[in-house]
Amino acid sequence: KVVCVSQDATIEEAARLMHDSDVSGLPVLKNGHLVGQINRTMMLAAFIEEMGLQLDSSRITLELDDTPGQILNITQIVKDFGLNIVSIATFFPEPTNKRLVVFRVKTSDPKPVESALRAAGYKIVTAADFGL
């Protein structure tokens, strides 16, 4: 059986279908007719664009309690430095009740913002924290 996706599906739905079905590409159908295809290369390109990797920016990853208002407070700190946020992504690693929030901030030097975030009580994490 060929796994297909509707032309109206979101990129997230297509990615999940590719992942869950362990396929490297999907035919795209409209009213039962082939109108295109999506493959892993396209998915990676979409991920890179969504994460803002084409822009001069820096990654700041925070481990947060999953409570309302966290992102609001963090964005205010970033704003106080006169910086724009290029992208925000959230992840819920198992088995904790914490969430990881990845910010890409439009700066080549994130150290001042990181210092302010630490001073405000936020925990910054890196790949080293995950044994990578």
Beta-strand residue fraction: 25-35%
- Secondary-structure-based class equals alpha+beta
Report how far apart the termini are. Answer: 38 Å
The count of strands amounts to 7
State the major sheet. 4 strands, antiparallel
Strand order of the largest sheet: 5-6-4-7
Q: Which percent bin holds the helix content?
A: 25-40%
Number of helices: 4
Average pLDDT score:
92
Based on CA atoms alone, the radius of gyration comes out at 18 Å
Low-confidence stretches: none
Q: Identify the overall geometry.
A: elongated
Q: What is the H/E order?
A: EHEEHEHEEHE
Question: Could you write a compact summary of the structure shown?
Answer:
With about 130 residues, the chain is of the alpha+beta class.
Structural summary, described in words:
The protein is elongated. The model has no long low-confidence stretch (mean pLDDT 92). The longest helix is centred in the first third of the chain and has 11 residues, at 11-21. Helix content is 32%, strand content 31%. The strands form two sheets. Strands 5-6-4-7 form a four-stranded antiparallel β-sheet, with helices on one face. It has a three-stranded mixed β-sheet with strand order 1-2-3. It has helices at residues 11-21, 40-50, 70-80, 111-119; strands at residues 5-6, 25-30, 33-39, 58-65, 85-91, 98-105, 123-125. The chain has 132 residues and is of the alpha+beta class. It has four helices and seven strands.
